[in-house]
Amino acid sequence: MLRDLNRSGNNLLNIIILDACRADEANDTWKTKASNEEPCLTPAFGKALTSHIRVPNDSQFVLIFSSDPGTVSFDGRPGGNSFFTSALLNRLTTSKLALNGIMQEVREEILQKSSNKQRPWLHSCLTEEFYFNQGL
User: Fold this and answer.
1) Closest C-alpha among 60, 98, 67, 97 to residue 83
2) Residue 124 predicted with pLDDT over 80
3) Per the database record, which ranges form the Peptidase C14 caspase domain (predicted)?
4) Which of 4, 16, 77, 119 yields a CA-CA distance of 20 to 30 A from 51?
């Protein structure tokens, strides 16, 4: 995916947000979001984080996962958004809050809601602050 995004032009900022379990395909928990406390021990897609793709130095990207490698994402209420998506949506329009600040707040909320079992994870090579809403 990053290779394709890099072909779309230089000096672009690419943000990819994935709300999905990061457990191994051999473990059935990858098929649905977690609803229990069963641990997932094997990280999914071992080289998925660009270890084999050269990203140009002038491009900036952020990869945001709803959970740490090898862990699961917990559902919210039935028919609603997950803990992660709800927390993220509640902060995207906050003015003058940079992406790193948004993710810190989301991470704190998810850790609290999941009793420290789910921690959103950020992989970034930003060279400057990014704001979804810079305000006036």
Assistant:
1) 67
2) yes
3) 12-131
4) 119
Counted residue by residue, the chain has a size of 136
Q: Hey, which CATH number is domain 1-6+13-21+41-51+58-135, 3.10.420.10, 3.30.70.1470, 3.30.450.90, 3.20.20.140?
A: 3.30.70.1470
Q: What is the mean pLDDT of the chain?
A: 75
Q: Residues 45-63: pLDDT tens digits?
A: 444 444 555 666 677 888 8
Q: What is the pTM of this model?
A: 0.73
Contact partners, residue 2, CB within 8 Å, separation at least 6: 14, 16, 50, 53, 55, 61
Cα distance between residue 117 and residue 132, in whole Å = 28
Q: Are 110 and 87 in contact (CB under 8 A)?
A: yes
Max Cα distance, the chain (Å): 49
Check residue 55 and report its DSSP letter.
Answer: P
Helix (H) or strand (E) holding 89: helix 83-89
